[in-house]
Amino acid sequence: MNTHTATAADARSLRLVALLATYIQSANLPLPNAALRLIQGSLSMTDDQAGWIFTAYLAASAITTPVAQWLAGRFGLKRVYQSALALFALGLWLGTLAATPLEFIGARVLQGLAAGVLAPLSMAIAVETLPVEHRPAFAPKWTALVLLGIVSGPSLGGWICEYFDWRPMFYLSLPLTAYIFMVVSLLLAEKKADPRPSFDFFGFGSFTLGMIGLQMLLDRSARMDWFDSPEIWIEALACGLGLYLFSVHVLTRKAHFINKGLFADRNFLCSTAIFFAFGFVLLSTMALTSPMLDEILGYPPDTTGFMTAPRGVGLVGAFLLMGRAPAWIDPRLFVALGVALVAYANWLMLGYSPLMDWTPVAITGFIQGVGLGILMPALSKVAFSTLDPKLRPEATGIFNLIRVYGSTLGVAVVQIFFFNNTQAMHSALVSNLTPYHQALPTSLPALEGLNHLVTHQAAFIAVMGQFKILLVAMLVVSPLVLLLRKPVATN
What we know:
This protein has two domains: 3-199 and 269-433 and 449-483, MFS general substrate transporter like domains (Growth Hormone, Chain: A), CATH 1.20.1250.20; 201-256. The chain is globular and about 70 Å long. 75% of the residues lie in helices and 0% in strands. It has helices spanning 3-27, 36-43, 47-50, 52-64, 68-75, 77-97, 101-128, 138-163, 168-171, 173-187, 201-221, 230-252, 266-296, 301-306, 309-322, 331-349, 359-385, 392-430, 444-477. The chain crosses the membrane at residues 50-72, 84-104, 110-130, 142-160, 172-189, 201-218, 230-251, 263-283, 303-321, 333-352, 358-379, 400-419, 458-484. It is a multi-pass membrane protein. This is DHA2 family efflux MFS transporter permease subunit.
C-alpha cells in the first residue's frame, strides 16, 4: 500500500471516529430521558432532582466548550482529546455504579465536562481530514449528526431500559469510546499551537461563575424554599457578582472573552436571542414529554422513547432539506416560518389530555421538529451574514454556547414550575375532598389509590403549564424577526 493511499485511509478512519464521538456525546445527553421513572426508583431520586440529570450534563459542557480549543493549542490536540475520552468513559462507568442521586449526578457532571471538549475538537479533527474545498459543506452535516444524537437518544435509551435495565444504557458507549481512543492513539498526530494561544480567563471565569450561580439557584430553589435558605443567598450572590464582574470587564477592556464588536451587529444580537429560545424549547420539551408519557400516562420506556421519534424525523429531515433551499429565498422568511411552527406546536401541546393516545404527541412533536429544523440553519445564516468576517470564529462559539445555556436554563425553569405547580394543584384538588362526600372511600388502600389519582391529575395539569411557558418563550422572541436585516453575500 502506497503512502498516499495509507494517508487517505487514515484520514477517513479519523473522520469516522470523530463523527462517532460527536454522536455518542450528543446522544448521551438525553439518553436517560425515557427511563427517568426507573432511575428515580432505583436511586430514590425526587422529582426535582431528576432535572439535574440534564442540567448537570449541560452546565458542565457549557463550562468546558469555550476552553476546548485553548486546551488543544496549549497542551496538544491529541493529548486533550484522549483525556476527554478517558474522562467521558470514567463518567459512564461511574454512572453504572451509582447508588445515590449525588453519585449519579456527579457521574453526569464528568460526562458533561468531557462532552464539552469532545464536541468542538471532534469537529476540528474531522475538518482537518477533509480537502480544503470540501470543508465549508461539512459543518451542516456535523450539526445534523449532533441533532440526530439528541433526538435519537431517548429512543435508544428507552429500548435498552425496557429489555435490560437502565444501567446498560451507559455500558453501550464504553466499548465505542475505547475504540475511538485506540484509533486516535494510532493515527492522530500531536499538534500544538505556535506560539501558545492566549485566553481571557478572567472574563470566562466571571461569566461562568455568574451562569453556574444562576443554574444552582434555579436547580436548588424549590427544594430549599428559595431565599429562606442561606445556600440560595450564596448562589444568588455568586450569580450577581460573576455577571457584574463580567459586565465591567467587557466594558473596560479592549480584549476579552466576548468581543464588543459582536454587540454592534443587530442581526447577530437578534439571532442569538432567538437561538437562546431555540435551546430553551429543544430539550425542555423532551424533558417534559418523556416523564408525562412514562410516569403520568404509564407508557413503558421503549414506547416512551419511540414516541419521540417523529420529532427527531421532522427536525433532522427539515434541517437537511434546508441545505437544498434555493439561495434566492430570503432566509428571514424561513426564520419566521420556523418560529411560527414551533409556537404552533407548543400551542397544540396545551390540548393534551390524560385520555389521549399516541397520535397527538407524534403529530405535535413532528410539527415542532420541522420548525426547529427550519429555524436552526436559517438563524445561522442570518446571524453571520452581516457580521465582520474577522469576528465569525469567535461569534460561532458564542452562538452555540448561548444555545447550550438556553437548554440548561430552560430545563431548570420548567422543573421549578412543574414542582411548584404540582404541589399547588394537588392542594387545590384535595381541598374539594371532604369526609362529607358520600362517595369518598374510607379504607386506607382506597385512600392511597385516591391520592395517587389526584397526584397524577395535578402533575398532568402542571405539565400543561410548562408547555405554556415554552409557548410564551417563542412568542416573546418572535418580534425580533422583524428587526433582522436582509442578509448580504458572505465572504
